[in-house]
Amino acid sequence: MTTHRLIVLVAVATVSEVSASSTTLLAAAVALLPAVHQPTVPVVPIEAGRASQVLVAMARGSCAFVQEPDRSVIFVNLDCPHARMARRGDLVGIIALAATIAHEQAHVTGADEPQARIIEATVFRRLALRLPHDRQIQALSHLQQLRERPIDGLQVK
Is the pLDDT of residue 96 over 90? Predict the structure, then answer.
């Protein structure tokens, strides 16, 4: 039996300031990940109005990022499109958030951006195949968008 663990550190707010839905949302996303892609460092939610302005500014334009240079924390922007979809109960949003966390975990273990994107797309595809058929079509559209994101002029195939 595989156990899933979620490390949520509240480094930027008091425990009472982080909403229960944030923790639940991250726990749901992490629970979908296979053991090899489980986070090994704290996963910290960033919510506008609840986190420091520095972290909110760093999170703009991305759904997650790894604290540099030591890669000791994965920050997840709960105001990004994937998280907003997941908050509405959209299964594609939840698996997109899970795949994003797997992408950041890949960076933690030393992957460069192209390698992390391949892991993200692979995790997303595998999770999408578990969705009901009608949701798989929406998921495939999202997967195509993942593949088309440029990386210094390259595309992930």
Answer: yes
